[in-house]
Amino acid sequence: MFKKILVANDGSENARKALQKGVDLARCLGAELHMICVEEHLPHYAATVGEVLEEKAEEDSYFAQVVREATEYARAQGVTLHSLVTPGHEVETVVRYVEQNQVDLLVIGFMGHSRVLGRVMGGSASNLTRLAPCSVLVVK
Amino acid sequence: MSETYVPFVLFVLVLLASLLSLRLALSVAIVEIALGVVAGNLFHIESTPWIDFLASFGGVLLTFLAGVEVEFELLRRKLKASLLIGGFSFLVPFVAALLYCYFVAGWDLRAAEIAGAALSTTSLAVVYAVLVETGLTNTDTGKLIMAACFVTDLGTVVALSIMFAEINWWTLVFYAVSAVVIVGGPWAFRWFTRRYGGRVIEPDIKFIFATLFGFMLLGKLGNSHAVLPVFILGGALAPSFAKQRDLQRKLRVIAFGIVTPFFFLKGGMNISVSTLVTSLGLVAILFAVKVAAKIVGVYPWARRYLRKSAMYTTLLMSTGLTFGTISSLYGLQSGYIDKSQFTVLITVVIATAVLPTIIAQRFFQPPLPEAKVATEEGSAMDTGQSEP
């Protein structure tokens, strides 16, 4: 059914639930499990390199922990997790990854911006659901 | 607005800028300039002597931080290509903007020279952020672009220092002392930090600040600008700084926390929205002049040294922000340009930070790297190796 599953993980509580669901599905279906963490807070149009370096170091350290925990969890469930941490725009990067890697199912937590911003820009979850060229499971 | 309220209002804006910057993943500098526009045009806040002081020091501190970011090893390895790409990236836009402003826009020579300096720049920081995001920092393309940026920056600070210097005895003293400080600086800095570093009262940071204020004083007495020696001193201290991550971080915290916000806010406060509306045509033309001149200056060399990513390189070399702002504010403070010319220049500078970046990211995006199975050490970080 689904041969390659991708979980988008920003380290939030809802993303953790998505990971658990992704691991369960991968185990039941014998699918390959991927996880992508997008460093989306790097400053665009920075005034100094230091501004980028400091933010990148913080994001790297945060997501290293997210990857460690996710890998341990998946391993405990008998699933191998392929993970990637990369900078970029959250929705755009996840969609590119799905396209590039022929992912069958994208699993995401119900996440995203505040209500106000979400109404203006569309929440990350709704944008991913709309733009991803594969089935999308939104976990609540 | 009464001067009593100014510090409070500006600091609320500084705080707001940092929150918006985090929320929108935008450089705090851009947000500070935008809020500066609000402060100047909506609240009618005018600059005060303490804002001028912090802004002047902010420009010098930003120049020093840019110098500290220079990787001489990288420059040495890519010397010929970076000199050609970076050199022409400075020279052609400098001449083109100067000639356009002088002969077509009718600016006087001093104002046209400021325009040349402001629009000749390439923003290493903007470029670096794009390279990180596209995963190209460790590729040949990324390294050569960064090395070329250092050369372009150097061209801009040399131009600012030389063009506007009115030589007197103090100028000679300024350059002689600068040479001594730059040569002896790394040794003195190592000795000082070994002897006094790592203490809560931060003598090492004060040592750097005292040196920078010394440059500012001598630059003023010598009717010159401190940017050149400050940039070179930063470069000379770069290897020492690279080994002292804690000190580097403290310096950035002080810079971003209290000093540079006022530099960018002041930049924004001097933008006149009404002038901007009536000068949009000139803004568009100067933007086109800068980008066209960058294409003429950079593209042929980029094709020679980075054939596959020549246009990507050219677009990134067309970006500008910090040195463009420094040049424009220097011109305004020194009376070489008026507020309307400043408004035009700073708008073009910001446009060049944004538009070429968006185009480069949109059309020259390399593929994402493969996901990896994390090891016990846990790294699945993308270091990025593929060329665009």
CATH architecture of chain B: Up-down Bundle
Number of strands of chain A: 5
Radius of gyration of chain A: 15 Å
- Strand line-up in the sheet with most strands of chain A: 3-2-1-4-5
Measured by DSSP, the beta-strand proportion of chain A falls in 15-25%
CA(first)-CA(last) distance of chain A = 23 Å
Describe this structure in words.
The complex is a heterodimer of chains A (140) and B (388). Chain A is of the alpha/beta class. Chain A has a single domain, classed as Rossmann fold (3-Layer(aba) Sandwich). Chain A contains five helices and five strands. A five-stranded parallel β-sheet of chain A has the order 3-2-1-4-5, with helices on both faces. In chain A, β2 (32-39), α2 (49-76) and β3 form a beta-alpha-beta unit. Chain A starts with a strand and ends with a strand. The model of chain A has no long low-confidence stretch (mean pLDDT 88). Chain B is an all-alpha fold and 388 residues long. Chain B has one domain (6-363): Na+/H+ antiporter like fold, CATH 1.20.1530.20. Chain B is 76% helix and 1% strand. Chain B contains 17 helices and one strand. Chain B has helices at 6-24, 28-41, 49-68, 72-77, 79-104, 109-119, 124-133, 140-163, 169-196, 203-221, 227-242, 245-269, 273-278, 280-305, 310-317, 322-333, 339-363; one strand at 372-373. In chain B, α6 (109-119) runs antiparallel to α8. Chains A and B meet through β2, α2, β3 and α3 of A and α2, α3, α7, α12 and α17 of B. β3 (81-87) of chain A pairs antiparallel with β1 (372-373) of chain B, so a sheet runs across the interface.
